[in-house]
Amino acid sequence: MTVTTTFSDPFRRLTERHAAWGAQQLEAFTEFMPAGPWTADLDQRLHRQAGLELRISVLGSFDTTEGSWLWGWANPGFGGTPVVGAADGIRRLGEAHGIPDFGYPGVQRPPRAVCTWSRTIRRCHVPCRTESRCRVCC
User: Fold this and answer.
1) Are 99 and 27 in contact (CB under 8 A)?
2) Which of 68, 72, 133, 136 has the greatest CB tally within 10 Å of its CB?
3) CA of 80: how far to CAs of 9, 43, 73, 85, 88, in Å?
4) On the CB side of 138, how many CA atoms lie within 13 Å of its CA?
5) What confidence tens digit (pLDDT) does each residue in 59-111 have?
6) Which residues have CB under 8 Å from 117's CB, separation 6+?
7) What does the radius of gyration of the chain's CA atoms come to, in whole angstroms?
8) pTM for the whole thing?
9) What are the two backbone dihedrals, phi and then psi, of residue 62, each rounded to the nearest 5 degrees?
């Protein structure tokens, strides 16, 4: 499997301008979601929490033990399934615009930004059904 350890310049050029907006959206979503028990049905792409039902996608998984990120489209348990459709769209965007980061299956020991993002959305993580060790899907 080909992985990268740094973000490319094309990736940074595309994403830097959206970082603050993305953080705001994440904060707004977290405030919107009521606290309480939740379930996720990845086959139906549904997240249920405190009476709300939301459509979900698995963009990828972050392994806190190994410090690595794996795109949903590259995960053998999800690749080619509807739940990773958004991740596959990101892969195609990378191919179309010369952003190799979206085409690498994973990032080994990713930059601090990915680690911080993954910790920020921890309350939204779903245990990954394809790994025996601690891996979470976002």
Assistant:
1) no
2) 72
3) 28, 12, 7, 8, 8
4) 22
5) 998 887 877 788 999 999 888 899 999 999 999 999 998 998 888 887 765 55
6) 26
7) 15
8) 0.67
9) -115, 120
